[in-house]
Amino acid sequence: xxxxxxxxxxxxxxxxxxxxxxxxxxxxxxAAARARSDARFAARxxxxxxxxxxxxxxxxxxxxxxxLWPQIEARxxxxxxxxxxxxxxxxxxxxxxxxxxxxxVVLTVLPVLRPIPDAVIAELVAEGTDLRxxxxxxxxxxxxxxxxxxxxxxxxxxxxxxxxxxxxGAPVPLGLxxxxxxxxxxxxxxxxxxxxxxxxxxxxxxxxPTGPILVTATITGx
Amino acid sequence: xxxxxxxxGDRQGPSGAGAAEPDPLAPLLxxxxxxxxxxxxxxxxxxxxxLFGTALRMLGNRAESEEALQEVFVRIxxxxxxxxxxxxxxxTWMIAVTRNHCIDRxxxxxxxxxxxxxxxxxxxPGLSPEASAIASSEARRIAxxxxxxxxxxxxxxxxxxxxxxxxxxxxxxxxVPVNTMRSWLRRGLMKLKDCLEA
Lengths: 222, 198
Description:
The complex is a heterodimer of chains A (222) and B (198).
Chain A: H1 2-7, H2 9-20, H3 25-37, H4 39-51, H5 68-77, H6 85-93, H7 99-104, E1 114-115, E2 120-124, E3 132-138, E4 143-150, E5 158-165, E6 171-177, E7 182-185, E8 193-200, E9 213-218
Antiparallel strand pairs in A: 1-2, 2-3, 3-4, 4-7, 5-6, 5-8, 8-9
Helix pairs in contact in A: 2-4, 3-4
Chain B: H1 25-33, H2 37-59, H3 62-79, H4 90-108, H5 111-121, H6 130-133, H7 137-147, H8 151-163, H9 167-174, H10 178-197
Helix pairs in contact in B: 1-2, 2-3, 2-4, 3-4, 5-9, 7-10, 8-10, 9-10
């Protein structure tokens, strides 16, 4: 235990400082990024969160304003879909994904999209599948974070692939959606479509979707 | 990931499972992870006051705290599947989500604002109200371990954790160079860890 503790003291100190919150912005962002890909470092952070949790007694509860809950619900679950189903169909068909593919696409896109001051939240869903994918775009960092929140993992020998499709543009692959969070630099102006397709293991060999589009969301607003 | 936990028995993980107190938030979080909106509403009712208090203390600004709390609950909704009930109490995890978001906001602020709020929040002398709020045995344990730190270092750790103070703000407050403050805190934290695991 001692030998290991010595070897990793630097990491443990960094994890401690991350949890304490004192790291400068750049170092903090680097530590957060590392925690996403390094399970061991993430575990160190979680251990420090538990270790220092008794200090949470210092946070006195304050009743939140009543208006807050409806705002949270609206942000996550959204208002009634503003566009017609047909409208989405046309939009989708116009994306250049190909008629054959479009025919296989599961419909009824129920985007839950709210432009908000510091992030854009979208939930990718479709009728007939339990698969749900949450996307959060942080404009300050120009990074989108994507996570499968419900539904099965991709079947063995296949992968979910995440795409960003600029209005009038071709799908751009941003990565494979496996366990954990996918983070990728991008921009998502209004009109952008986010989509997840089912692809061969390792992703589409062509750089464009080859399998069915499973879930989508369209960025609305400004 | 659980095999990476330090093996220090039930003294480690004050919030871990197996504690005598049941954790009503853990089952709610697992329902939220599967997309249960009613569970999410109940979770909000049970935790929003604590999390709002957390944001208020760290950000020191009501409007920003409301905005932060919205973002925090969006994150809780989208990340609930990452919560591990065998590892931490539900509230511990949610406060960590809240603190992380508030710290990100604080670090994105211009330095001057931060310093001003630092002076304000640390104006209260002595060991601050949280000392009186300490109730649980785990909290007493950490209070005992804090007692072994030099008082100004213990206060610096609390100032960082509860008020989100940066190294710069802390070094200004305690009139020591930033590097000194950094080594105070690093050593202080490691001493705390040793004490908690002793």
